Amino acid sequence: MVRPPFPGRRRLGALAAASVLFLTGALIAAPGTSQAATSLPCDIYGAAGTPCVAAHSTVRALFAAYNGPLYQLTRASDRAVHDIGLLAVGGYANAADHDAFCNGTTCSISKVYDQTTRHSDLTPGPAGTAGMGNDRGADASEIAVTAGGHKVYGIWISPGVGYRYTGVASGVAVNGQPEGVYMVASGTHVGSACCFDYGNAERTPADTGNGHMDAVSIATTCYFAPCSGTGPWIEADLENGMFQGANGSNTANLGNKTTYVTAMLKNNGQTTYALKGGNAQSGGLTTWWNGALPNRGGYIPMKQEGGIILGTGGDNSNWNMGTFFEGVMTYGYPTDAAENSVQANIVSVGYAGQTNIPNGPQSTVTGPGGKCVDVAADDTGVNGTGVQLWDCQTYAEDQRWEQFPDRSLRTIGRCLDIVGNGTANGAQVELWDCNGVGGQKWIQQSDGSLRNPQSGRCLDSPSGNTGNGTRLQIWDCNGSAAQKFALNGGAALVGVGGKCVDVAGDDFGVNATAVQLWDCQTYSLDQHWAFGASGSLRTLGRCLDINGNGTANGTQVELWDCNGAGGQTWQLRADGSLLNPQSGRCLDVPSGNTANGTRLQIWDCNGSTAQKFA
């Protein structure tokens, strides 16, 4: 459609965790099985005589017998590619393999595999007649949820992200043939621009007229007024119209706002189409429309072309946003009974976790006036795009930054960079490909500033300006409000042997949980520490604390509720040590031990490598 823009890891053994808890993302996972179900969505559709001709998911197998790859990753650091498969035949994605491959860098999802034998794989789409450039692959680690009790990743669609099968996909309906389509997506990460679609589209990215698309959409687009409420609504993108009913408007469609939504569309290609929606976590389906195709011209009969899109419109209109987990296309008009069985299977997956914000280690960097560090150009920033202040927007991908152990700050696959690798006062900052230069290094200071070591200067808002669009720069570090930038996602504390300060227990540290050294894992929330009030160091909602508020040499450190005690205050010193002022001692690795699991303590400050925490 065309519309103007508007792992399991460490303490549990190699890559094998039984449970995962993401406190920052408000995501809880319980142990679950990875055994294949006896009948998954494509088995259900096939048994009903409407076989899947395309099946895509980054979460799970959609056939009980499937044992191939789900998606492909491309690593930013070296452009290596890697396929992510299943924990078991017919089971769930191997997120531990994903995490291990992307550790220390960022990855994009460069291919979503078709699980049918037709191999209609989806890759980032080409530029189309909507005027947008080539699509980019989604940030692979942007949205982690759980399914079947396992950590899995969805596809975070933001402006500029989209996938396509260009050409006529094998078996997909064309020229008025019947078909069905469903997707599981977020009902909270949605927008009104064009187009967060999954389904049948033109064979090339061009609007070729009414009826040439047949894709399901979930959006807040009231294309044909009146609409009931504010949406989001499940709609049919039939090209040049987002339809809720016969000729567009359908006030009986009350929308689907749940965290996870099952969105269904079926079309007999000649006279009739139907729209259904449901909560993908519980309950059944609601039929929003089951009746005539639009008689506006061109829709009776349909003229589908058999291309496949995910996250865009047929002409590559890619301004909208959404979160995608799974979807299939069938040949033939599915029965209500088959659709009900598919919904029951989806509910049995036990999807859990937030879907409206990136919930990995990425988080906002808030600056003067409570504004967020933002990339100009609405999530589509390329090399040289200005970095500025803007109102914080929970859905804005380019306001979600992650700091890596190399001290780079990254968003949408690129780094916060100083123009020309400059060092002078007033040099502006921008987004640029990560390349390891000095202008891409940023160190979080205990006073709330972000210092660039190469220049010795701090990230700065000129004259403390807080207006939207204020371009950021570097300036002599002066402790002013114009240089207070809270790195809300924290950063790694890298100690002796290149090991990271880590909380025992796989991201679910409670009071008194040990704090130790462990191999650095950029996907681990409990290795991201942020300076808080009064010099506290925080992760997982708790503080780095000295056991018993002690002051003696050898007293171990732990995680504890933040309470302002002296044992929770830490000052980053020029030599890289972390001083606890109450005791007058420094955070220390006993005897400089670099083994995983080495418990940290306090000790007389001595300038040794055992007390250096970058």
What is the secondary structure topology, with strand pairs?
Layout: E1 21-22, E2 27-28, H1 41-47, E3 52-57, E4 71-75, E5 81-84, H2 95-102, E6 107-112, E7 123-124, E8 144-147, E9 150-153, E10 155-157, E11 163-165, E12 179-186, E13 197-201, E14 214-219, E15 233-237, E16 242-243, E17 260-267, E18 272-279, E19 285-292, E20 307-310, E21 322-331, H3 336-348, E22 365-366, E23 372-375, E24 387-390, E25 402-403, E26 409-411, E27 414-418, E28 429-432, E29 443-444, E30 450-452, E31 457-460, E32 473-476, E33 486-487, E34 500-503, E35 513-518, E36 530-531, E37 537-539, E38 542-546, E39 557-560, E40 571-572, E41 578-580, E42 585-588, E43 601-604
